[in-house]
């Protein structure tokens, strides 16, 4: 970590990863437009071109030879596409999509030059080259319709010329806009102009005019293509910017002299066209953001913790003078300063936590590609609908979530959504819908993965569990429908007769569940035959800070994440009954199993029975009452994991510093639930029934 | 440090001349143990201890050191010695076992010895029944005013603490 070369390497990988992700997102947009039969957005193709171009550049710098080779071939292909020398079609899209996987694999290599990768890369480059040039239909040069003038045409870059042709073909009218710009703010002004025209028109190029302007300003002639009728365009621009003049077909345009002072054509051809361009914003955000190793944020957080300790040490010193009337005035002041310090410290903590937040869209973006690919492989039609991609969560959680969510998404396509023919015979729309919804709910984020497929067959799950010996036939008949559905989380269970590329190996759902629980989250399933399946994942917004209920058990302090707590009620010893060796109470007519934590932890009880409390926890579809001694209150605590040496001790998610180096162990509610209902060895309670 | 049956030896301390090894001697119960000074990050007054229910008995609990949660182990228990039950530790050593920083509770810190190679009798040359975490022994005089020599048992933190996981 301290090796600067490693750091640089990490920076490169992070940047390359971001570029590949951006590329992946943009390719999907391109594919979507293509599938809808729309013309490709020139700004989007530019954005893709730029990502690949940048990737090529940095790969070259860091010796990622293969990445560079592929990026170079793609750059050529995309350049052809940009310039209309080739057109978008499935082969081209396939080659582009294929690159994502290749880039990711090559970036993960230990040896970026690995010679054994050579043949694969060469084959791929050959495939890219074979797309070749298949120019879009050419029906006479549209430029001939306009007498734009050789002088102007000669200074257009190949790209500008291509855009000019494309705009004319699309039936856009050409205009010449004369506007005077302040020399010192010319870049900003042009940027403003671009923003202004973006909905109405496309700026093909701008050239300085020889007339007008003085030492401080310059008159530019902007060549504009627009769909908006001339009068409207005029009201939009005239007066504010300058004159608008339509370029008539077959008429003569006053000669525009090219000038050495013009903006380098090169710079312009690679800058984005500003039509509602998402890349535009991201380019800016890149410039205004820095990449930070998340461990550095952890270090900062530790410093904040230290500051809190210093603050309480000052408080203790102050205490010593509190009896002395001489110091009363100073003490009052010190007290006020101390409170100010605490407020700022709390603010600092909040800000640092805020920095860790990233939008879930970072993960969702990856799924779009997987959905497309998986649907193609399975020969299914799937539409992905994402809501709440802006929902923010702790970076660490978002990263940890990628794999479990990916599994759920693949499951939905593989097992959930039916093939087109079956959907049609069921009078369902041929295209299945996979919805990813994210939203905040209190201090949690809820993520739903919902498909409108065939739903889960609860009885098939039960039969599979019995035939695979995970459950006795008798026990299986006592299961409720929900319990049958939950069998999907039992390790080793699979209802799929053949193993597919994607899922059906019988591993997965149990791993998904374990991973989600480890992050302090919850997972629940709802499924209706023929209608679809909805999996709901509930997670804390941040791993680092949680709202916790502070309780005491056997005079020790513990923290219980509030996400797991539904309510707390007084413990009434005489109401406790025993069913099958387990203690239960009745709450609002429902039987609630209870677990005496003092007994579980082997503590001698310090509080009389009738002044204790039952904290009702809820996890998925189950409730469990934890019997504790006292309720202290709610607090936001920073959870830190216990060391590796204590990893075999179950039931604790970490420890939280309550100040003055006093720690409270944070109870791992999911683990306690699992232990209670399934036993410490992970066996399900139903299996152990006689 | 210890791989399979191979016994660890103490490598000379680069900071010391003449190939000597710096060892921190600590007293626990009636015995004196030595940790390679290079593995000891810090010596602390014991911070407030939070016990961890259901953890094996040699774990005293967890402590907070500069925002980090550190597992505290009881040296006598770890060495299967009948230590003084329930005695609060006198000092805590933060020992790096190569993977994790672990707190080791001891009664008292004695001093640092610069041991010459010929002062150390390595376990590999001794009876094969010696525990894996013992690197060897050295004879040192604990008290400079008397000539009585004490046996200093040299520990391998990697084998001693790494085995907890």
Key terms:
heterodimer, A: 690 residues, Four Helix Bundle (Hemerythrin (Met), subunit A), 5 domains, six-stranded mixed beta sheet, 44% helix, B: 165 residues, mainly beta, OB fold (Dihydrolipoamide Acetyltransferase, E2P), five-stranded mixed beta sheet, 2 helices, 11 strands, globular, disordered N terminus
Overview of the molecule:
The complex is a heterodimer of chains A (690) and B (165). Chain A is an alpha+beta fold and 690 residues long. Chain A folds into 5 domains: 4-131, Four Helix Bundle (Hemerythrin (Met), subunit A); 142-287, no CATH class; 294-355; 358-457 and 495-540, Heat Shock Protein 90 (2-Layer Sandwich); 545-685, Beta Barrel (OB fold (Dihydrolipoamide Acetyltransferase, E2P)). Chain A is 44% helix and 22% strand. The radius of gyration of chain A is 32 Å and the shape is globular. Chain B has 165 residues and is mainly β. Chain B has a single domain (18-162), classed as CheA-289, Domain 4 (OB fold (Dihydrolipoamide Acetyltransferase, E2P)), CATH 2.40.50.180. In chain B, 6% of the residues lie in helices and 43% in strands. Chain B has a 6-stranded mixed β-sheet. In chain B, a hairpin with a 2-residue loop joins strand 4 (59-65) and strand 5 (68-74). The two termini of chain B are 15 Å apart. The chains are: A alpha+beta (690), B mainly beta (165). The interface between A and B is medium-sized, with 32 and 26 residues.
Please specify the SSE layout and strand pairing:
The complex is a heterodimer of chains A (690) and B (165).
Chain A: H1 4-35, H2 42-61, H3 65-82, H4 90-108, H5 118-131, H6 150-155, H7 158-169, E1 173-182, H8 186-197, E2 201-208, E3 217-226, H9 230-237, E4 242-246, H10 265-269, H11 278-287, H12 294-320, H13 328-355, E5 357-359, H14 361-378, E6 382-387, E7 392-394, H15 395-416, H16 420-425, E8 432-441, E9 444-451, H17 458-467, H18 473-477, H19 481-486, H20 509-518, E10 522-528, E11 532-540, E12 545-553, E13 556-561, E14 565-570, E15 577-579, E16 582-587, E17 590-596, H21 597-600, E18 613-619, E19 622-628, E20 630-640, E21 652-657, E22 663-667, H22 669-678, H23 685-688
Parallel strand pairs in A: 6-8, 13-22, 17-19
Antiparallel strand pairs in A: 1-3, 1-4, 2-3, 5-7, 8-9, 9-11, 10-11, 12-13, 12-20, 14-18, 15-16, 16-17, 18-19, 20-21, 21-22
Chain B: E1 21-28, E2 31-36, E3 40-44, E4 59-65, E5 68-74, H1 75-78, E6 91-96, E7 101-106, E8 108-115, E9 120-122, E10 134-141, E11 149-155, H2 157-162
Parallel strand pairs in B: 2-11, 5-7
Antiparallel strand pairs in B: 1-2, 1-8, 3-6, 4-5, 6-7, 9-10, 10-11
């Amino acid at each position: 970590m301290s090796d600067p070369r490693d750091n640089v390497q990490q920076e490169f990988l992070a940047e390359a990863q971001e570029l590949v992700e951006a590329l992946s997102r943009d390719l999907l947009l391109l594919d979507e437009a293509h599938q809808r039969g729309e013309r490709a957005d020139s700004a989007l193709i530019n954005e893709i071109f730029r990502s690949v171009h940048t990737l090529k550049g940095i790969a070259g710098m860091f010796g990622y030879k293969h990445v560079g080779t592929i990026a170079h071939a793609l750059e050529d292909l995309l350049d052809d596409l940009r310039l209309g020398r080739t057109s978008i079609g499935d082969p081209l899209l396939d080659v582009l999509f294929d690159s994502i996987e290749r880039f990711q694999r090559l970036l993960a290599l230990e040896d970026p030059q690995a010679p054994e990768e050579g043949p694969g890369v060469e084959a791929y480059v050959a495939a890219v080259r074979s797309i070749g040039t298949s120019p879009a239909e050419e029906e006479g040069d549209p430029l001939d319709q306009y007498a734009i003038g050789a002088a102007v045409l000669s200074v257009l870059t190949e790209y500008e010329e291509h855009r000019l042709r494309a705009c004319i073909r699309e039936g856009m009218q050409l205009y010449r806009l004369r506007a005077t710009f302040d020399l010192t703010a010319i870049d900003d002004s042009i940027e403003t102009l671009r923003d202004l025209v973006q909905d109405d028109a496309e700026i093909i190029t701008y050239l300085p005019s020889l007339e007008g302007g003085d030492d401080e300003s310059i008159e530019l002639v902007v060549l504009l293509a627009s769909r908006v009728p001339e009068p409207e365009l005029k009201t939009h621009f005239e007066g504010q910017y300058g004159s608008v003049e339509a370029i008539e077909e077959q008429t003569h345009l006053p000669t525009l002299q090219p000038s050495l002072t013009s903006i380098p054509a090169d710079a312009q051809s690679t800058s984005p066209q500003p039509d509602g361009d998402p890349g535009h914003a991201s380019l800016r955000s890149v410039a205004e953001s820095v990449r930070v190793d998340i461990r550095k944020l952890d270090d900062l957080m530790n410093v904040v913790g230290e500051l809190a300790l210093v603050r309480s040490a000052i408080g203790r010193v102050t205490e010593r003078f509190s009896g002395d009337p001489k110091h009363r005035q100073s003490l009052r002041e010190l007290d006020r300063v101390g409170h100010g310090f605490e407020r700022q410290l709390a603010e600092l903590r909040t800000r640092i936590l805020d920095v860790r937040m990233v939008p879930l869209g970072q993960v969702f973006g990856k799924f779009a590609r997987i959905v497309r690919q998986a649907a193609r492989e399975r020969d299914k039609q799937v539409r992905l609908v994402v809501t709440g991609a802006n929902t923010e969560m702790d970076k660490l959680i978002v990263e940890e979530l990628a794999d479990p969510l990916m599994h759920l998404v693949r499951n939905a396509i593989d097992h959930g959504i039916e093939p087109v023919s079956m959907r049609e015979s069921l009078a369902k729309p041929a295209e299945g819908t996979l919805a990813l919804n994210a939203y905040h709910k209190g201090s949690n984020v809820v993520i739903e993965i919902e498909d409108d497929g065939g739903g889960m067959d609860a009885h098939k799950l039960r039969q599979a569990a019995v035939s695979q010996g995970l459950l006795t036939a008798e026990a299986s008949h006592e299961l409720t429908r929900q319990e049958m559905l939950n069998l999907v989380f039992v390790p080793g269970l699979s209802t799929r007769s053949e193993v597919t590329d994607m899922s059906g190996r019988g591993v997965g759902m149990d791993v998904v569940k374990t991973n989600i629980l480890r992050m302090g989250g919850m997972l629940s399933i709802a499924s209706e035959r023929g209608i679809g399946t909805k999996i709901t994942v509930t997670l804390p917004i941040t791993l680092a800070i949680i709202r916790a209920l502070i309780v005491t058990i056997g005079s020790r302090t513990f923290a219980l994440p509030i996400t797991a707590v539904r309510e707390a009620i007084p413990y009434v010893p005489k109401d406790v009954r025993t069913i099958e060796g387990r203690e239960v109470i009745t709450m609002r007519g429902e039987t609630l199993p209870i677990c005496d934590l003092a007994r579980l932890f082997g503590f001698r009880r310090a509080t009389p029975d009738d002044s204790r409390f039952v904290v009702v926890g809820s996890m998925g579809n189950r409730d469990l009452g934890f019997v504790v001694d006292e309720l202290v209150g709610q607090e936001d605590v920073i959870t830190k994991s216990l060391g590796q040496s204590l990893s075999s001790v179950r039931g604790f998610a970490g420890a939280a510093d309550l100040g003055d180096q006093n720690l409270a162990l944070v109870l791992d509610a999911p683990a306690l639930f699992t232990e209670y209902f399934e036993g410490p060895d992970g066996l399900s309670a139903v299996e152990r029934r006689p | 440090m210890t791989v399979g049956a191979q016994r660890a030896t103490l490598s000379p301390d680069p900071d010391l001349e003449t190939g000597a090894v710096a060892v921190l001697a600590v007293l626990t119960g009636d015995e004196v143990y030595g940790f390679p000074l290079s593995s000891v990050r810090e010596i602390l007054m014991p911070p407030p201890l939070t016990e961890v229910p259901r953890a094996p008995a040699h774990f005293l609990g967890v402590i907070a050191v500069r925002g980090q949660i550190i597992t505290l182990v009881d040296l006598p228990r770890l060495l299967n010695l009948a230590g003084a039950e329930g005695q609060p530790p006198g000092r805590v050593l933060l020992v790096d076992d190569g993977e994790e920083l672990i707190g080791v509770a001891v009664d008292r810190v004695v001093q640092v010895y610069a041991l010459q190679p010929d002062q150390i009798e390595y376990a590999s040359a001794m009876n094969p029944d010696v525990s894996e975490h013992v690197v060897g022994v050295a004879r040192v005089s604990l008290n400079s005013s008397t000539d009585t020599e004490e046996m200093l048992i040299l520990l391998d933190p990697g084998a001693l603490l790494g085995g907890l996981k």
